[in-house]
Amino acid sequence: MQASDWLQLAVLVVAIGISIPVLGGYMAKVYGDDGGAPGDRVFLPVERFVYRLFRVDPDQEQRWTGYAFAVIAFSVVGVLMLYAIQRLQTVLPLNPTHAPRMGEALSFNTAVSFLTNTNWQSYSPESTVSHLTQMIGLTVQNFVSPAVGLAVMVALIRGLARRRSETVGNFWVDLTRSITRILLPLAFLAALVYLAAGTVQNLHGFDVIRTLEGRTQVIPGGPTAGQEAIKILGTNGGGFWNANSAHPLTSANGFTNLFTIYLLSVIGFSLTYTYGKMVGDKKQGYVLLGVMVTIWAIVAAVGLGFETNGNPKLHALGVDQSVTSSQSGGNQEGKEVRFGAPMSSVFAAATTGTSTGAVDSMHDSFTPLGGMMPLVHMEFGEVSPGGLGVGINGMLVLALLAVFIAGLMVGRTPEYLGKKIQAREVKLVVIYTLVMPAAVLVGAGIAIVTPTVLGTSIWNPGPHGFTEVLYAFTSAANNNGSAFAGITANTQWMNTALGLAMLVGRFFLIIPTLAIAGSLARKDKVPASTGTFPTNTPLFAALLFGVVLIVAGLTFFPSLALGPIVEQLGTK
């Protein structure tokens, strides 16, 4: 690594560290039960108009069942509208590139993908999707899908913080506040930064220009900066261009690359501070933050080590991959020269730890174990720090599992924040922890024995092809959306199978989360005793870290052994 890479890492860490208490404290006030929040004079009139328009009583709270029904109903309407827009884009306005009507399976996959905050794209956006579909369909979902995740997050925190309560909040209020007070203002500021840095924002079609060499080149236009800001901030990931964040019209230089990493990480990490403030114990939030940062740092460091050491296949051919004045060094295959191997590895760790899915390099061209790290990061459940709301939800569910294990060790009923964790909560935790692995392993297992997949989708035989399929289903079931590349996903079978994996990975986790919130909200808090296992200490952080590793390791190690591990052994 060069000095500039170390400087970028330092700037990233400092910027996120400064932002956590500021943004986290602000979000705690936005979602708090204490009444007023910053910006009420500006936001309250807007929110009251929205409530009147949709006939929502903001003072009427919901049980967890009503909250879950509202989430599902809102999602059903959203997916149907997005599906219709895609199917009708040829007869709708703002289609200067003459994008064709999207097929049934692809429209289903795309609608589900953006609904679930996955943003998996089985197509080239610049030639397949109209500007209207980008702005009214995809960009709108880029706002509302992370807002749904934030709403579910705050419902779970209320369940932990409240005593003898039958309600966990009002979904429509939490959704509205997430959009108006957090996502819209921050996305607007981020879009201005992208615009100033050179990201495209217009309503043009394709412009034909003449290069300095005397040749012609087609330059696509479109409303990129606006979508790029919320795509990254909302941990969505679906890009305006097929090359995603590697495209120079999206990310022009090292600054925009670093800004993107910051933007996709900052809310997820800040939510730990929000959690600590809302439950009245900041140390609880620091424990979660410490575990998240540790996992993130290990994944980034290991992946960075493999990529900066270069590709052993190229070493064998005598190719110089060292750092010199004219090259950044390391494994540069599939990476942008302006970013280099180190920051591409950091980006890969950040995007797969946050369910963002945007990429600034092709993970398929990483070294086998270097490419395994973003795959493993998703298989942890994307809890470091995870997508908006979803990541901290996963960490809190694993915290409940950790205190249950600690309770078994000391022979008493486990407690978390003064709430007894009993059979009902443990059963829901088990469901939560099994759903995602089942969707990944069952989906990938069926895919690799399906003739149509073997004949049309998998280009690379052997362990690398298996890794590509495993990565695709891991990305879909974790609502990440990043692709390993090297696989044809735009087939009827793959579009349908991955779409179903996205739905399972989204709603079969949201429902148990809300059920846990409702169950905990009804409980009273019991006073701590000498037998209570404290959950705001480094010891509990170590236990929680171990639980994350063990759950993912026992579940996914056999599949990893069949893919990237055996491929790495074959390179020696």
Record the SSE blueprint.
Layout (H helix, E strand, L loop, with lengths): L2 H29 L8 H14 L10 H24 L16 H12 L9 H4 L2 H31 L9 H27 L8 E5 L5 E5 L3 H10 L20 H25 L3 H27 L3 H5 L23 H14 L14 H12 L10 H21 L4 E2 L2 E2 L2 H25 L3 H6 L6 H15 L14 H30 L16 H33 L2
Antiparallel strand pairs: 1-2, 3-4
Word description of this protein:
- The relative contact order is 0.12.
- The protein has 19 helices and 4 strands.
- The protein has helices at 3-31, 40-53, 64-87, 104-115, 125-128, 131-161, 171-197, 224-233, 254-278, 282-308, 312-316, 340-353, 368-379, 390-410, 423-447, 451-456, 463-477, 492-521, 538-570; strands at 206-210, 216-220, 415-416, 419-420.
- It has one domain (3-570).
- It is mainly alpha-helical and 572 residues long.
- Helix 10 packs antiparallel against helix 13 (368-379) and helix 10 packs parallel to helix 19 (538-570).
- The mean pLDDT is 92.
- The longest helix has 33 residues, at 538-570.
- The chain has a two-stranded antiparallel sheet with strand order 1-2. The chain has a two-stranded antiparallel sheet with strand order 3-4.
How confident is the prediction overall: mean pLDDT? Answer: 92
Proportion of beta-strand residues: under 5%
Structural class: mainly alpha
Order of strands, main sheet, comes to 1-2
Give keywords.
single chain, 572 residues, mainly alpha, two-stranded antiparallel sheet, 19 helices, 4 strands
Question: What is this entry, summarized?
Answer:
With 572 residues, this protein is mostly helical. It has 19 helices and 4 strands.
